[in-house]
Structures are given as structure tokens and as C-alpha cells.
Amino acid sequence: MWRAEIKSVNLEQVMRLAQSMVTHFPSKLTLGITGTLGAGKTTLVQFIAEAAGIEKESVTSPTFTLLQTHRGSVTLHHMDAYRLHDEDEFLELGVEELFEDDAWTLIEWADRVRDVMPTDTLWIDLSPCEQSDLRHIEFTSECSKLHAHVSHLDRIEIQPE
User: Using alpha carbons only, how large is the chain's radius of gyration in Å?
Assistant: First the structure.
């Protein structure tokens, strides 16, 4: 497993990160998005949607609907595992079909269903920094092909201001 991190980014930098991801990442991707309550998981998904030409306001946390699909330059299947009881309930939603679709499947609270996530999942962990408007972002994956895509993100100069 490889790991990459970006420290102390503000919302504008997270937006640029999302734009770079949509531009450079493959059209089929599973993102496991983790972090504490309020860490910015849905905000990241909104920025990804906006970068894909989807109205940011139409993307809300799917905590109660469990799944939302949005179509733009990239199709996004946005899920939330927060309220699921277990991995069986997650699988009963038919997620394996979503994982096979030529789309991005973005799952908030994916750490709750980690054992049934695809091995090529790109994990993104968001955590607040001491300065409340900044976030620390960590990428991990078992998939070596994704490492090249994440390594490219360093070139967008996400550095503390």
C-alpha cells in the first residue's frame, strides 16, 4: 500500500485539487472518503461534482437517500455508509454493479464498509487541522496505477499559504 499526503489546505485549494482529479484521474474510479463529522467529505464531493460540470448545490450528503447519481463530464455515484448497519446491508444496495460502471463511485464513511470495498479503491482521509479552516488530506491505495495519478497532484502546488 502506498500513501501520499497534502497538509494544511484551505477550501480554495481543495477545489483546485478536485479540478485536477477530474482532469487527470481515470473515468472509472472508486473513492473511499473518510474523516470525522464535519471534516469536509461532502464538500470534497461537491467540488468534484462542480469540476465535472455538475451543479454543486445539487450534491448533498446522501445520508438518508444512501445513493445519488449525478451526470457530468464524469458520472458520479455518491453514497454514504454512515447509517448502514453492516457490510451486508451495503452489499444489498447493489454496489458491486456500481463498482463495475464506467463512473466514479464516491463513498463517504467508507471505512465502515472497508472489508467489502474493491482492492483498487483510492482512499481519501480528511482531517481538520488546528486552524479550523484548513484540512489535512491523505491518499492511500493498494493500486499502484493510482499512485501515478495522485503523484501528479503535487504539481498543482497545494502548499500552506
Answer: 15
Q: Is 161 a member of any domain?
A: no
User: How many Cβ atoms from other residues are within 10 Å of residue 71's Cβ?
Assistant: 11
Cell of 151: 503523484
How far does CA 137 lie from the centroid of its chain?
11
Does any domain span residue 130?
yes
83 found inside a domain: yes
**Closest Cα partner for 66 from 91, 54, 45, 84?**
84
pLDDT tens profile 67-88:
899 999 999 999 999 989 899 9
Can you tell me the distance from the alpha carbon of 141 to that of 131, in angstroms, rounded to the nearest whole number? 28
- Alpha helices (H) in the chain, listed in sequence order: 11-24, 41-51, 87-92, 95-100, 144-153
The pLDDT value recorded for residue 154 is: 58
Supply the range of the domain harboring residue 140.
2-156
Backbone phi, psi, residue 139, to 5°? -110, 135
Looking at residue 127, which CATH number applies to its domain? 3.40.50.300
> What's the burial of 38, exposed, middle or buried (CB within 10 Å: 0-12/13-18/19+)?
exposed
The number of folded domains in the chain is 1
Which pTM value belongs to this model? Answer: 0.91
Cα(99)–Cα(102) distance, integer angstroms: 8
Give the count of beta carbons closer than 10 Å to the beta carbon of residue 89.
Answer: 13
